[in-house]
Amino acid sequence: MYYYEREMTEFYNLEPGEYVVVPSTMRAYMNADFVLTVYFKFDTDLSPHDEDGHHNHTPVSPTIPTDKEEEPMEKDATILFERYARQDKLNARQLQKLLNENFPRGTWHNFSLDSCRSLIALMDKTRKMKMNISEFSALWKKIDEFKNLFQSSDTNRNRYLNKYELKKALSAAGMELSDETVDLLMYRYSDSAIMPYLSLNGFIPFMMRMDRMLNVFNENSGKHMHLSFEEWSHVFMYN
Question: Residues in domain EF-hand (predicted)?
């Protein structure tokens, strides 16, 4: 596929192996200078090919983390918090940097700034719009819980959840929803407008919202809620 753009960025999720990147111009026989920058999630050996198409040494396959290396609880929440927090608080950008640098995503998706604002709001019991150490510790445990739920629900192991796998995950978390409701939620929170799916980084804020709404509902009778407009606005809008 060719584009007329002067600069472009592409993201790919590839299985371990040997791949060749071949830049070319739109017009045949046209010479041009270019800059190719390649970023890898794991340690990878990248080598140029000579004019005969041979590389000068054997590339090493990417190192895939083990389950132990992927376990976020292996890193102490207090140490992480102190490394990124300022004045004993995490704002949304600091939380985003912490998560994207320390949480194993398994896909090219990062935690967005909006998702991190949402995570702070969902844990913000003091309404300070920042996260303290106790709130972060609780969040870190929830992240680990939902990561395990994601992995157990990802039956085809493609690192995304379709709507059937999402319904399975919700059911395992004690949230029995109709197919119609799951369709609506998938449309609202999907990572793609073309093929509905949820990545791990989208699934975690989604489950945090669902968990929060379920707790509020159960705390207020279980069948019918009795909240003031201000209380409901905090639940409905500030998340």
Answer: 141-176
